[in-house]
Write a structure and sequence with these properties.
The complex is a heterodimer. By secondary structure, chain A is of the alpha/beta class. Chain A has 5 helices and 5 strands; from the N terminus they run βαβαβαβαβα. The chains are: A alpha/beta, B alpha/beta.
Chain lengths: ~130, ~350
């Protein structure tokens, strides 16, 4: 019928309570015409993978400010794969030290965004990544 | 791939179900084929519609309700379809109902699917019905459909449900609000949520009054005026299976108070529908309505494809310049359909 709607899950794994960034991104993606499923705070990797499965999303966007990215991200990617969702593109935003970024990309994160990122860049990257998967 | 996915769905594979739901939502040929294959297995689930104004606690209520339904002796599988509006400007949507349903996430017997209203041609209600069919065929015994109660399309959606719950909160207006026609008329069960807030008892009274007025005609056709308490009580005693009088319940969904009572009422309503034959009748009217929507959508698509774009633009121009009336424009535009289809 119409062009495919891009569905994005925005989640905050682990124990940090600051979700302004996640909400700003959610809003920007909505304004770019995507369907954003927002799950709220303090999600475990299992919860995130489960939500991604039920919602059949194309993209999972994770926001981590707690410093626990090296523990949480590999687990989330593993859970997604175990559920058969290898096609899901994972984006990460938050306070991520430079030294950790390459490691995370190797784990399967598509791109990492720091503070001050232009939301238009995020929208563009997501569209490109989803098109490449299709 | 579809045949395999369908047997996977029937076996309880949740990823297969999720992908089929997406196909159905996109109204793709694969989705339509899946629905055709699944249709013989449908008709088992009890569909529960929940609607009410924004902020009345629908999602929180659904969260609590799903929990209690799962605790029923037969441990039924529960599906939730949570509808949120699509932005008319960007076409995007923020689907935030899961935020209130966090306690449901560890339970594999519960499947929550968020749905944006999109600009679906066949109507949101038809679309929701299609999704519920997939859940039905996948063995979900209860399907809860949650939608913001703001207009006609919501009324349509809940009309497809077996049991419609309208959620209200204290302080939403006086009794004149509650006797206005519209969304309250469709309720099988009325819930005053946030019952710990000021004015809850008053809201309950308003709603009961509204119901008493509506149902007085059933027994007191001679125009007797009685207090609503007497009427509802007597009515229930004397004609237990004749007519369903929508009960008014108080809940505090965030504390899971009043939820078991709500579950009991839903079960009672389900039994009532089956006893009186209304279950089948409702299913039939849902099918009729779905067919009607599908025909409208198909005809529109066909017609739209038959009209050349420049002719359409030309006629729109004529109408906007007041050279012809929309009625005349329609005559001209529909003429295209006849020439191409014959």
């Amino acid at each position: 019928m119409s062009e495919k709607k891009i569905r994005v899950l925005i989640a905050k794994p682990g124990l940090d309570g600051h979700d302004r960034g996640a909400k700003v991104v959610a809003r920007a993606l909505r304004d770019d015409g995507m369907e954003v499923i927002y799950t709220g705070l303090r999600q475990t990797p299992e919860m995130i993978a489960e939500a991604a499965l039920q919602e059949d999303v194309d993209v999972v966007g994770l926001s981590i400010l707690s410093g626990a990215h090296n523990a949480l991200i590999p687990q989330i990617i593993k859970e997604l794969k175990e559920n058969g969702q290898d096609n899901v593109v994972v984006f990460l935003g938050g306070i991520i030290p430079e030294d950790d970024i390459n490691g995370l990309l190797d784990q399967g994160v598509h791109k990492v965004y720091g503070p001050g990122t232009d939301t238009r860049e995020v929208c563009k990257d997501i569209r490109e990544a989803v098109l490449a998967e299709a | 791939m579809p045949a395999e996915q369908i047997s996977e769905l029937r076996k309880g594979n949740r990823l297969a179900l999720s992908r089929i739901l997406s196909q159905i939502e996109a109204a793709s040929p694969a989705g339509e084929r899946a629905l055709e294959e699944l249709f013989p297995y449908t008709g088992q689930a009890h569909k529960i519609g929940i609607t009410g104004p924004p902020g009345s606690g629908k999602s929180t209520l659904v969260n609590a309700l799903a929990r209690n339904l799962r605790d029923l002796p037969e441990k039924p599988k529960v599906a939730i379809i949570a509808v949120d509006p699509t932005s008319p400007f960007s076409g995007g949507a923020i689907l935030g109902d899961r935020v209130r349903m966090l306690d449901l996430q560890g339970d594999k017997g519960i499947f929550i699917r968020s749905m944006a209203s999109r600009g679906t041609l066949g109507g949101l209600a038809a679309q929701t019905e299609m999704l519920s069919q997939a859940f039905d065929a996948a063995g979900y015994q209860y399907i809860i459909i949650e939608t913001v109660g703001a207009g006609q399309s919501e009324v349509d959606i809940v009309n497809l449900a077996h049991t419609t719950i309208v959620v209200d909160v204290p302080g939403m207006g006086d009794d004149i609000q509650s006797i206005k026609a519209g969304i309250l008329e469709i309720a099988d069960v009325l819930v005053v949520n946030k019952a710990d807030h000021l004015g809850a008892d008053q809201s309950v009274k308003h709603l009961q009054t509204m119901i008493a007025m509506g149902y007085r005609a059933l027994r007191y056709a001679a125009g007797k005026h009685m207090l609503h308490e007497t009427i509802t009580q007597k009515h229930e005693e004397e004609t237990p299976t004749q007519a369903w009088i929508p009960p008014v319940l108080k809940t505090i969904a965030s504390d899971r108070k009043g939820i078991q009572e709500l579950v009991d009422v839903i079960l009672k309503h389900g039994a009532y529908l089956k006893e009186t034959g209304l279950w089948a009748e409702k299913a039939q009217s849902a099918i009729t309505e779905t067919l009607r929507k599908l025909i409208i959508s198909k005809l529109y698509t066909q017609w739209r494809q038959s009209v050349p774009e420049d002719a359409l633009q030309d006629i729109i121009q004529q109408v906007s310049q007041r050279k012809c009336h929309p009625h005349q424009a329609i005559e001209q535009l529909l003429a295209y359909n006849k020439t191409t289809s014959n």
